[in-house]
## 1
Amino acid sequence: MAGDFRGIGMTSQRSRDRLVSQLREMGIQSKKVLELVRNTPRHIFIDEALASRAYDNTALPIGFNQTISQPYIVACMTEALLADGLPETVLEIGTGCGYQTVILSKLAKKVYSVERIEALVHRARQNFRALDCRNIFVRHGDGNLGWMERAPFDAILVAAAPLGVPPALLEQLASGGRLIIPVGGSGHQELLSIRRTAEGYEERRLDWVSFVPMIEGMG
Ligand code: SAH
């Protein structure tokens, strides 16, 4: 048995190294982000039947018509979030299985995450316990409304695409803070980086992306 476990460990170490090289080739530069992708066990977030593909650079199904994000997208959004240094508090919308949340929890003091599907909230909590992440707080709710009681946030990362930027998220961003959000209809969304300044908001497009839609209300 122990031998089997070692075998899996070695295979996944090789595939993790390969994933990190791919992300580097695709333009991810932050050493911190690349190390986090290398050291975060993505296989524990997905069904065992898909475990052999855990370190492929693709989105994978997690049930409920949802996916665990593509590692490149997670790395790209995380890197964009770090443009102004390490945030103290982060709000994530769309916890899913919690992979991105765990990566954020290694960079920020506290991570607050909102998910509309209750079963995923429970699954994510189990994953956080298994990885001993104690600075993550998850809530079942509608991410369009943010998490007002915990605002303002130094950074907000949204993992599902609304048709327009929800006003509550702009309001809950601290001055100097940054919001990373995909915006647009299905299959063709722009990934925006929005910085709150003393005068207002500065917006920049990072990329074209394809996220699951952000749905109104709770699941
Ligand atoms: N962050 C995840 C990916 C999540 S996929 C990862 O690391 O892989 C997007 C998630 O957003 C889904 O779980 C979906 O249920 C959730 N979602 C969609 N609309 C939402 C809303 N209005 N509020 C909160 N979560 C929402």
Note: Residues 2-25 form the longest helix (24 residues).
## 2
Amino acid sequence: MNRGSDRVRVILLNAALGPLDYSVPEGMYAVPGSIVMAPLGPRSVPGVVWDMESFPVDEIDAKRLRPLRELRDVPPLSAPLRRLIEWTAQYYLASPASVLRMVLSSGAAFADNRPIIEYRLNGVVPGRMTPQREQALNALGDTQASIGELANKAGVSVAVIRGLEKLGAFDRFEVPAFSVTSLPKASFSKVELNDDQARVGDILVAAVKKAKFKPYLLDGVTGSGKTEVYFEAIAQALTQDQQILILLPEIALTEPFLDRFKTRFGAEPVAWHSGLKQSDRKRNWRALASGEAKVVVGARSALFLPYHNLGLIIVDEAHEVSFKQEDGVRYHARDVAVMRAMHEKIPIVLASATPAIESRHQVEQGTYEQLELPARFGTAALPTVEALDLTRDIPPKGSWLAPTLVNALEENLKKGEQSLLFLNRRGFAPLTLCRTCGHRINCPNCTAWMVEHRLTRRLACHHCGHVMPQPEKCPECDDEDSLVACGPGVERICDEVKMLFPEARTAIVTSDTIWSPAKAGEFVAQMEAGAIDIVVGTQLVTKGYHFPNLTLVGVVDADIGLEGGDLRAAERSFQQIAQVAGRAGRAEKPGHVYVQTRMPNAAVIQAIIKNDRDGFYAAELEARRAAAAPPFARLAAIIVSSEDNSEAMEVARMIGQTAPKVEGFSVYGPAPAPLAMLRGRHRHRLLIHAHRSVELQVIVRDWLEQLEWPRAVRVGVDVDPYSFV
Ligand code: ADP
Ligand code: ZN
């Protein structure tokens, strides 16, 4: 322990720097994990005091050490969390500083104890109005937030908000940095579990009591009561006065989950996601660090919060690929969650109706214990599933729904029951083409088609967000009225539904319409109130929702997912269709699912129709074994990008040429990435394939550390990649 004069090693929040040593001024009590401000050149930079032995450095003379400036008044990061940070940095080939940045997200940790100041319009209209002031007054309503957040929300500059504030248009509020949240109660409203559920529940409760590291795969069909069962484990952890982390794949799912949690435990858990206001962030961060808050529900970043005494981790919908982060530190939240549980020495539950191949493999290896819930709860039966062969049951020209599906929709409408059409494509049409010259409208920044969004009358790139107005004429040959939309997106399917059933009440559910937890809450309320007859949605509707009156599901195009041809294409299609099918008939009324396909005999489609999960998994696992693909071997990708294509190509080639020659370690490429340009940067990829016995990270780190490249070139490593574009 360091007191006063000692030397400490500090990781600064600066990815370009390694750990630096400082001296501790008289009277400051800095221990490993302490959050401090340290001098760097003329500036003060935040950092965390680290264990001396973790990162050996050439020690500089004690006399030359500069003293730390300040010790922040928050609990030090715990040893298990520090080990997790080190593991994450090592495994994903990231700098400890960039992982630390996720832990200390948005400066919440460094902010002092002073209350945050927020403002809210008070109805005073300033004498001198400008268009911007007008805009702000119209946009803000009764929003209460900081000046920066208000400016953001109103789409005006901070100066405009400050100006309005000076003129007295806002009331000022001091939001305290601490709060006492009402606490969830273990036995607020318990449910009676059925036999299967009780058996699994008992095992999980025992695991929480035992307080040892152990991963469980909670594998139960959709609607079998996985949530009810893991609630039992949560109740036990609450009884033990421990904290619980629940990871969800999508922030849109948090709102319905918060309600459900409150019904069971009498109080809402703390939410953690990118949509939080700064003041909530600060408050939640501190409430968790102090142990005051007990339960967190969050997206992947909640994984790195500084829990005071974590007792249990739940990863719900654990198969979801959105747990994989694709920029910054490219980590997989499911896998890091397991490592966190290991370091904290606690049980972790991965819940899914369609577990990932990797997780099933861990069960076979004996690392995870599988807990099965074989049947739906109560009288609810699994829906019947039927393939519709689009080469025989042909939709009329210019339409996408097969006659059989249209009839079924009509029947369902008559019965007053709800239907869901699933198509994993946002917008109206994925491609706009000129009938005269054949020109396809591409994104100027990416190798990707611009997607027509008819609701907003614009074309949008789904990779970089570039938008342009719908052109009147072909940008290539200038021909007018020659542009045609090719293929369907959800908007187009919704148009077709409206043409067929003008009286039906429809809703489109995509990330364009459900972009916040509040929007998701509105959608759920409308569905529950029966105000929607037919939902058309993307993968966003395949997750977690429970609508008792939803009895018909139509999968518009089951073949799309198989086109990508990457490693997990078949698995992902299987999971997605099984999940969306799982939305049907979740209560007393039976459900029916139609799957439109041009390949009714494909193995994936057959497995879905026959509900042959185990058969599908066995076949897929064998195929992976035969191809020496993960989980039987390991992959990593190196992505080289630059605004200058020849520069990117040159660096990629240089990396390829210097590849180490190690038994069981092969490097393929470089080759232009399938998405050869992204956000204006040219991209080249190398793929590493390694035996499980090879220390992939060590080899790659040693290899890349010796190389140099121009500053404008970015080299990123993606360990266990999920995206191959
Ligand atoms: P899953 O998470 O496996 O999809 P849920 O936990 O959401 O399943 O359960 C599906 C539905 O059945 C929910 O409405 C849930 O409240 C209800 N349910 C499940 N088990 C029970 C139980 N033992 N008692 C009462 N309702 C239950
Ligand atoms: Zn783009």
Note: Confidence is low (pLDDT under 50) at residues 1-5.
## 3
Amino acid sequence: MTRRAVVIGAGHYLPERIVENAEFEATLDTSDEWIRSRSGIERRHFAAEDETTSQMATRAAEAALKSAGRSASEVDAIILATSTADLTFPSAATMVQSQLGMTNGFAFDVQAVCAGFVYALSNANALIASGQADRVLVIGAETFSRIMDWTDRSTCVLFGDGAGALLLEAQDGAGTADDRGILATDLNSDGRYKDLLYVDGGVSTQSTGHLRMQGNQVFRHAVEKLAATAHTALARAGASAEDVDWIVPHQANIRIIQGTAKKMGLSMDKVVVTVQDHGNTSAASIPLALSVGVERGQIKPGNLIVTEAIGGGLAWGAVVLRW
Ligand code: UT7
């Protein structure tokens, strides 16, 4: 018998305000055509002025709990992947805990930028596999609109806000690749690449800062590293690319998504794509895509899924799970 972390619920939340590419044409030397053709993005959601990451995370968590038919009091831990927490401290995860009315368990944030959800899933899997928790809410939530430089056309048109959540539960499996739940993970980072994608501010430098990115350099690393991490995780799971039902990638750029699928030898029919509607929501993009994939009827129980992501750090990784 092997203790597996099985997904029993998924949910998401997107802020009400939708901004189409064309809206940027009024203030920037850009076009809907450029944004669409270079990134695949058509629109994104932006949080309201008084809307915070923890509030969006809570909405997504409530939806995940509802879809699982569970209540917050049955949750042992909350892991929230975010780089845009409400406050410097406490963690946004503890704010979600109180907003859900939980007085039990423990909660913490994980900060691995766009790879955050993959890191959070891996942590949740470790907590469940080691018997420290039976039920874990894993959330990705971001308000990247707060760290955009609205005069920088090479970054501000790419990102959006939102939240997605999964509820994981300990269940016994046979220890084979046919089990439901997380089968394998692969995490990597290389801090030498800090200057490719970062925010030029923070607590110890006494400012909030704005996102800075050398997009074409990140692009080059993404195509090379994402297929490699997906293959490593698949091999650890005892599966191969042919077994995959869905790739659910980090949604940064349709060209990266297509390049990774091609390197894995899989057609785009096997990829859940939401980048056109959400833009890049950093740590929220994978749980958003998983939840939307279920809602669309793409992802079904028993499907073998590979998620993969890369972002600031650089930090990257993949998780293989059977839904
Ligand atoms: O989620 C974290 C990980 N992040 C990513 O994965 C993002 C990875 N990078 C990308 O998605 C792409 O590199 C971008 C979408 C950011 C850019 O696409 P690109 O094909 O790599 O373009 P580029 O950066 O090489 O820029 C090409 C040209 C430049 O002009 P020149 O130097 O050729 O005259 C840019 O100034 O496009 C220009 N440009 C724009 N033009 C119109 C950059 N941004 C814009 C814009 N509108 N918004």
Note: The longest helix spans residues 215-237.
## 4
Amino acid sequence: MSMKFSGAYTSLKREELMQKVQMRMSERRFLHVLGVEETAVALAAKYGASEERASIAALTHDYAKERPDEEFELIIQRDGYDPELLAYGNAIWHGLVGASMVERELGIEDEEILQAIRLHTTGAAEMSLLDKIIYVADYIEPGRDFPGVKEARELSLLDLDKAVAYETKHTLMHLIEKEQKIYPKTIETYNYWVSKKRGKDHR
Ligand code: DGI
Ligand code: FE
Ligand code: FE
């Protein structure tokens, strides 16, 4: 892939950003990140979002995933996040709080990119096109292999909103199956994108 950055969102060249991300994670996770980038750029081209923003958000979405819990706990307490967040773990922190590390450490200040990083795990009721692209690309990138991924990939090419709904429903079912604690935002995403008890005008 040869996405050339304009300089609007980061002063780093793509190769430089890739290297900073790679330094922070295992080879396996870095390959996942590259898969998300490829998928996100393709979805951005298809649906008319900024391919450059999609590339940068994808490359940085899991930037904080391998940070120790203690570092997140310090930031949550120091920076005025809802203390309820402390009851969760890395799964919820690495995007929501990780976006602030992307901003401070990588100098990426674009609010659309930061929001896509914040929402990439839980989704939200209100999601921008870029938010949806990163949320879905994370789920369907070529390295993912789980029952249902083929359907999710097909939906992503037909109707991005349906892909968001599919992913949300299946993630929630998986979390409930494992008796995991559900973050309220994940429920909000379900209620908005999946629940049928809502007027059509809500989409
Ligand atoms: O970081 P990735 O593994 O690429 O993917 P991700 O950020 O979408 O998800 C990280 C994990 O978070 C994944 O195992 C699903 C889980 N997750 C999503 N919503 C919730 C959640 N975990 C809990 N406990 N609660 C949630 O609401
Ligand atoms: Fe993630
Ligand atoms: Fe990811």
Note: Residues 32, 62, 65, 91-92, 95, 120-122, 138, 171, 175, 180-183, 186 surround 2'-deoxyguanosine-5'-diphosphate (ligand 1) (CB under 6 Å).
